[in-house]
Amino acid sequence: MDRLVLRQPDDFHVHLRQGSASADWARDAQKAGFARVLVMPNTVPPVVDSASLMRYRHSLAAAAPGLGLLMTFKIMAGMTTETLTALKAAGAVAGKLYPEGVTTNSADGVRHLKDAYPVFEVMQELDLVLCLHGEDPGAFTFDREVVFLKDFRALRQAFPRLRIILEHISTREGLETVREAGERTAGTLTAHHLLYTFDDLAGGALRPHLFCKPLLKRSEDRAALQAAAVAGEKQFFFGSDSAPHAKSNKEAALCSAGCYTMPVSLPLLASFFEERGALEKLDPFLSVFGAEFYGLPRNPGQLVLERRPWVVPLEYHGAVPPNAGETLDWQLQEV
Ligand code: NCD
Ligand code: ZN
Hints:
Layout: E1 3-7, E2 10-14, H1 21-31, E3 36-39, H2 50-63, E4 68-74, H3 81-89, E5 92-97, H4 117-126, E6 129-132, H5 144-158, E7 164-166, H6 172-181, E8 185-189, H7 191-195, H8 198-202, H9 219-231, E9 236-238, H10 247-250, H11 262-275, H12 282-294, E10 302-311, E11 327-332
Parallel strand pairs: 2-3, 3-4, 4-5, 5-6, 6-7, 7-8, 8-9
Antiparallel strand pairs: 1-10, 10-11
Helix pairs in contact: 1-2, 3-4, 5-6
């Protein structure tokens, strides 16, 4: 089989940044084949109210007409019901919780999860999805996700009607906790956490373009993530966590966290699902489970991946994808 026809997929976790560069990242999302993207709010300044959300969506829509923009806001402790109601009215679909200091642009994040409980209460009433960066900043870096899960379970119990997503799951325990949490709980999986481990990042020469939060983990964790994806478990769907940084900020003494994976995600995932003999599970992972969780219709369009080797460009607008220069088997048919 040399041609793969897929429903046009969604990417439920992307960073499109701010300023003039955001036009490039938004257009890249379209070129990479995505119909809709869930746009993260950790811009500078962040998306925290209806005015900033509408401004941001407007600029992205002008840059990439036709790209489905699912907007989020950054959760701040003390956000008022009025602000949250206005965000919902402006079209926000989700709020993103960043624990303080845990990743790129999160210095203004929430210190203790409990501090945001009043916000979660209102989000539950408004039926806004809660997206969690699930890492405890007080824990050792490698353990941050697992330590966070205790707070996650308490949160799950406290707000039974809230839809909650554990973003970019990186551990076996993270998957287990989402499974146990049941129906209104889901997790996103990135291509890099599915395909790489900490050894790829730092086992030999350091590969800064694989450095992201949460850190890549052990091969046992990767195996658990892979099994969840190819089994077609509907609680787990794709969110690339595509996070472009300038090459000079990645190949640096203080390397920024984030991998720019959007342009390579579909070819990488096609190869991976094919190797596992699970190509029929690719479409639900990319285009069905996430849409269902968010209560969105499935995308009507299609795209074609062809088995035609291509070399990943060394840079996209100054950002380097993790596998720059490598040859991939599948490529998106130009439309
Ligand atoms: C993301 C970024 O660069 O904005 N970085 C990352 O390492 N994943 C933020 C995030 O999602 O944690
Ligand atoms: Zn992210």
